[in-house]
Amino acid sequence: MNFSRLWLHIARSTVSFFLQARFMMVLLPSMTMVRWV
Q1: What is the pLDDT of residues 7-36, one digit of tens each?
Q2: I need a labelling partner for 6 at 20 to 30 A (CA). Which of 12, 15, 21, 29 fits?
Q3: Rounded CA gap, 26 and 17, in Å?
Q4: What is the spatial distance between Cα 3 and Cα 28, in angstroms, rounded to a whole number?
């Protein structure tokens, strides 16, 4: 595995991690709101 491919893999995993975190940050409050209602 060369360096550019490794960097691309790291960047892709980081972007997917941030997207998951953002999705959870949006999903959790809506779930708690539904639970309170």
Answers
A1: 999 999 999 999 999 998 888 888 787 776
A2: 21
A3: 14
A4: 37
Backbone angles phi, psi at 18, to 5 degrees: -65, -35
Distance CA 35, CA 28 (A): 10
Question: To which residue do tokens 């998951």 refer?
Answer: 20
Q: Is the dihedral of CA 5, 8, 14, 18 positive or negative?
A: negative
Q: What is the pTM of this model?
A: 0.55
Q: Is the dihedral of CA 23, 26, 28, 33 positive or negative?
A: negative
Tell me the residue type at 10.
Answer: I
